[in-house]
Amino acid sequence: MDIDAFKQLRDHAEFSPYKGKLKKPDVHVSGDNPLCGDTISIDLHMVKGKIKEAKFTHHGCVLSGAAASALLEYAEGKELEKIQNLTPEKMFKLLGTEISPARVPCALLALAVLRQKQGGK
After folding, report:
1. How far is Cα 69 from Cα 19, in angstroms, rounded to an integer?
2. CA distances from 25 to 5, 20, 22, 35, 118 (A)
3. Are the C-beta atoms of residues 79 and 120 closer than 8 Å to each other?
4. SS3 state of residue 58
5. CA distances from 66 to 2, 15, 110, 116, 121 (A)
6. Could you read off the pLDDT of 47-106 as tens digits, one per residue?
7. Distances (CA, A) of 89 to 33, 106, 109
8. Confidence check: pLDDT of 120 > 60
9. How far apart are CA 84 and CA 113, in angstroms?
10. What pLDDT, on the 0 to 100 scale, is given for residue 121?
11. What element of type H or E holds 28?
């Protein structure tokens, strides 16, 4: 990954408008990557089955934070079930850079956390 791609990911993770917590989320899920210690919590406000508002808190590497931000940006206005069914390739495309095999778990952590919520309700 070149330095410009890293800076873009860092900015996405650190200055994301999706960073934070919702006061009364309809959905709250959290998880971690035990291999590297990254943790992510995601709060969603749902209206008529669609994601109206989304926030995340994150401790860990830039890539997992940027992936959470990119995922939530993409998710707003969409059905949770549709987001849960995203492919890894779509997540990589949202990030806009190549992901090395060793970093795949970081790039997919937010998606894995959202998949914990069953049924999209």
Report:
1. 7
2. 32, 12, 6, 28, 16
3. yes
4. strand
5. 16, 10, 10, 20, 25
6. 999 999 999 999 988 899 999 999 999 999 999 999 999 999 999 999 888 888 988 999
7. 19, 14, 14
8. no
9. 9
10. 43
11. strand 27-33
